[in-house]
Amino acid sequence: MASASLLIPSPSPLSRRLASPHRLALLPLRLPQSPRLRSPRPLAVAAASSSSPSPLQALIFDCDGVILESEHLHRQAYNDAFEHFAVRCPPSSSQPLYWGSEFYDELQNRIGGGKPKMRWYFGENGWPSSSIFETPPASDSDREKLVDVLQASEINIFACFLDWKTERYKEIIRSGSVEPRPGVLQLMDDAKGAGIKVAVCSAATKSSVILSLENLLGLERFQGLDCFLAGDDVKAKKPDPLIYITALKKLGLQARNCLVIEDSVIGLQATNGAGMSCIITYTSSTANQDFSDAIATYPDLSNVRLEDLKSLLQSALVASG
To answer: Which GO terms describe its molecular function (predicted)?
Structure first.
């Protein structure tokens, strides 16, 4: 697991905004009413002849936000966990902690992973009271001791929260009410049919990702993946590129021959850090992010063909020299 110093941003104006979901809720929504398709950004050099062999040898999908639009499901599971464990932050609050949708959009687009999210939030707002720890630590030294215990103990407050939250998320997935995003299954099938490797790299908990993929892709597609990595498989979460660097080793390919499909700037940064090209299929919570480093941006994959992706990657490689 990555250290908190790598994953938790220093206090900043945005940090102060995120620190109070109640304050943030008063801000006007900035998301567009209907995200527009943005064409692939122009490239300086034209693509090579269509007769040239395609460099695309692997298509790598993120899970949350790409295969399924899941952030609202994670938020629901967090809030259910906060209520179940009577988490109150501050402890004097009469109601359990609740993360609103606008607040959570900014939080999840800023900080990857469940533990880092809660470490950061409690660090900014004070450690909570709960049915697990009735009295939160009051002094800096006691808080530091608690952090040490939480990181070293096999049973800790984060594990209790995340285990319960993960199980709640699984219940939602099992309900059958969640479907894959448009175009995902067709693109996977087309890639496999063309002899192109297909992989999934997600920062989420492995057990929840497996359940999502088994339910949404079907067992045959899931078991046919050439590579599958989750947050449990690497020590650093996105935007650290480690998960994609690890995927390259498992696939036995060079970065130039892989194309990643992500939905957020955090994922885009991880992809670029691994030296791979990336297209974005954004969601309502990520539509306003800066995707200028992606080779193309789409609202979903419903009108994206495999040949389109081959051409995009070829053009990007030619343009980069």
So the answer is: hydrolase activity
Condensed to tens digits (0 to 9), the pLDDT of residues 253-278 reads 999 999 999 999 999 999 999 999 99
Q: Which two tokens stand for residue 19?
A: 């620190």
Q: If residue 259 lies in a helix (H) or strand (E), which one and from where to where?
A: strand 258-262
Parallel/antiparallel/unpaired status of strands 197-201 and 58-61: parallel
User: Is 233 a known active-site residue?
Assistant: no
- Sign of the CA dihedral running 310, 201, 263, 77: positive
Q: What is the pTM of this model?
A: 0.67
> Rounded CA gap, 194 and 245, in Å?
24
pLDDT at 159 (0 to 100): 62
Sheet hosting strand 227-229, strand order edge to edge: 227-229, 197-201, 58-61, 258-262, 277-281, 296-298
What's the farthest any 2 CA atoms get from each other in the chain?
Answer: 69
Sign of CA dihedral 38, 43, 47, 53: negative
Give CA–CA dist 305/176, Å, rounded. Answer: 27
Whole-angstrom distance, CA of residue 216 vs CA of residue 266: 24
Q: What's the confidence (pLDDT) of residue 140?
A: 66
d(CA 60, CA 201): 7
Q: Please state the φ and ψ torsions of residue 224, each to the nearest 5 degrees.
A: -90, 0
Q: Six-digit token pair at 262? A: 């992500």
300 flagged as catalytic = no
Tokens of 204: 């989420």
